[in-house]
């Protein structure tokens, strides 16, 4: 197969890394079309994955709309040059539009019901949509498949990911103390318009509480105040999951990184504006605690109560959850084969 993979966010790099490697290992030809968004391009290069960046993330409604128009045209040019049999993305706005225009199948994986603008301009055009079983938003009738688990099982499924403690130490883990991971986000995604994150007081409170207990690793999409800079994670992006797997707790505003933590067996407190299907699912399974982003006093209490539970309880809950979940990477490859069909469509 000739497969075009649409990468628009750093999390997409991790999501598609194993499927890309599986496809390449069996002789399929893969073209990666990327977007300059946070560390997405850096991460692709860190993994040695060649890519073509065709747009830069816009800011605000006008900036995102302008980027979308430019990305659609750039995607059309990329498709005419590469002539894929099948296209795949996470969200998949541009590939859905150009797929409908050219007749090339475009499939998408997604898990965020709150991105209403994005789904409205994607679902009418996408060939096939794949969502978690817990997804509660509208989906294309007759064109939707549901999967048990979360997207993190594409790259953190126990069959493929084994935490490396030595690598975690190289990334900053303090082997002599408890370690804690804190994550803040930039609130610049299309489903984040009009929202803001932690206040400085909340950040100070969390950092003060956790530094009294051990080593804090702070990961942020945006700039930090000077008083927090010494805590910033400075290791390679590809090593974060190894470090996270050795931490006692993750606290933060990123639903994706909170989900990564619990799939690794590490308890997480997610402080958000939105609670998409996968965090609700993990919360119901006893793996994650969800709370409003502005509930500062409650956050302090939750950190204390969460750390009081033995780690074995979290790990046991994780094992129960994973029993019914497939390896998403293998499923992605199978979905591409099915969607491409025996008679692959190719542009002349």
How would you characterize the overall build of this protein?
This protein is of the alpha/beta class and 348 residues long. It folds into two domains: 2-155 and 327-340, Rossmann fold, CATH 3.40.50; 165-322, Glycogen Phosphorylase B (Rossmann fold). 40% of the residues lie in helices and 18% in strands. It has 13 helices and twelve strands. The protein has helices spanning 10-25, 40-46, 60-82, 93-102, 116-120, 165-170, 200-211, 240-244, 255-263, 277-284, 296-308, 311-322, 328-340; strands at 2-6, 29-36, 52-56, 86-90, 106-109, 128-132, 144-147, 178-184, 214-220, 249-252, 268-272, 288-292. The strands form two sheets. The chain has a seven-stranded parallel β-sheet with strand order 3-2-1-4-5-6-7, with helices on both faces. Strands 9-8-10-11-12 form a five-stranded parallel β-sheet, sandwiched between helices.
List keywords for this structure.
2 domains; 13 helices; Rossmann fold; five-stranded parallel sheet; 348 residues; 12 strands; seven-stranded parallel sheet; alpha/beta
